[in-house]
C-alpha cells in the first residue's frame, strides 16, 4: 500500500510558509454555514508538515498526511504537490 492509499487522514491546503528547514506551514480551509444567518464562512487551520527534500514553496497546493509526531508541533507529512505556484 502506497503512502497516498493509507488509512491515515489527509488534507489538501496551500503552503503559506517555507522558511524552516524541511518544514512547511500549510493552511487548510473549509467552509461552514453560520448557524443563525446561514452565510457561508471560510474557516482555516494551519499545520506544520515535514518536507524532506525542501521542494515546496509559498503558494504551492499540497496534500499532507498525518503521521507520528516528528517534533513538538509537527505531525504531518507532505505527500504530493498538486499544483506549483506561478
The chain-level structural class is: mainly beta
Helical element count?
0
CATH class: Mainly Beta
Characterize the largest beta sheet: strand count, sense, and whether it forms a barrel. 5 strands, mixed, barrel
Q: Roughly how many Å apart are the termini?
A: 33 Å
Describe the structure.
The protein is an all-beta fold and 86 residues long. It has a single domain (3-83), classed as Nucleic acid-binding proteins (OB fold (Dihydrolipoamide Acetyltransferase, E2P), Beta Barrel). The chain has no helices and five strands. The chain has strands at residues 10-17, 23-33, 40-50, 61-66, 74-83. It is globular and about 45 Å long.
Condensed summary:
This protein has 86 residues and is mainly beta. The chain has no helices and 5 strands. It is globular.
Strand-helix topology:
Elements: E1 10-17, E2 23-33, E3 40-50, E4 61-66, E5 74-83
Parallel strand pairs: 3-5
Antiparallel strand pairs: 1-2, 1-4, 2-3, 4-5
Supply the key terms:
globular; mainly beta; OB fold (Dihydrolipoamide Acetyltransferase, E2P); 5-stranded mixed beta barrel; single chain; 86 residues
Amino acid at each position: 500500500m502506497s503512502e497516498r492509499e493509507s488509512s491515515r487522514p489527509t488534507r489538501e491546503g496551500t503552503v503559506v510558509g517555507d522558511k524552516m528547514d524541511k518544514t512547511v506551514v500549510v493552511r487548510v480551509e473549509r467552509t461552514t454555514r453560520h448557524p443563525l444567518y446561514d452565510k457561508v464562512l471560510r474557516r482555516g487551520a494551519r499545520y506544520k508538515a515535514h518536507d524532506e527534500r525542501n521542494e515546496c514553496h509559498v503558494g504551492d497546493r499540497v496534500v499532507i498526511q498525518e503521521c507520528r509526531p516528528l517534533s513538538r508541533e509537527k505531525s504531518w507529512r507532505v505527500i504530493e504537490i498538486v499544483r506549483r505556484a506561478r
